[in-house]
Fold this protein.
Amino acid sequence: MDTASNTKLGNVNDLPVGDMHAVKMGDREILLIRLDTGIYAMDNFCTHGACTLANGKLEGGTLRCLCHGSEFNVKTGEVVNGPATTPQPTFAVVLKNGEISLAP
C-alpha cells in the first residue's frame, strides 16, 4: 500500500464546503469533510456500531451517525454526544496543488 502522503484522495474543487465524501485508501475508508475552516478526515465507520458515517448528518463542525445518534467533532473526533464512548479516528490532511492527501 502507498504511504498516506503519496495517496491522492481527491481534488479540493470536487468537495464543496458543507459536503462529505468517502474514499478508499488501501483497506480503509476515509471520510473527507469540508467545512468553511478547512478539510478534515476521519475513519468512515462509527466507533460505536460500525455504521457508515458518510450517510450521517453534518451540522456545523459536528457529524451525527444516523444508526444510533452518536455525534462526533469533525476536527478532533471527540464524542460530542453518545452512545459512542470512543473517539472517532481522525487524520491530518495535506493540501498540495489542489490535491487532498493525508499526512504521513
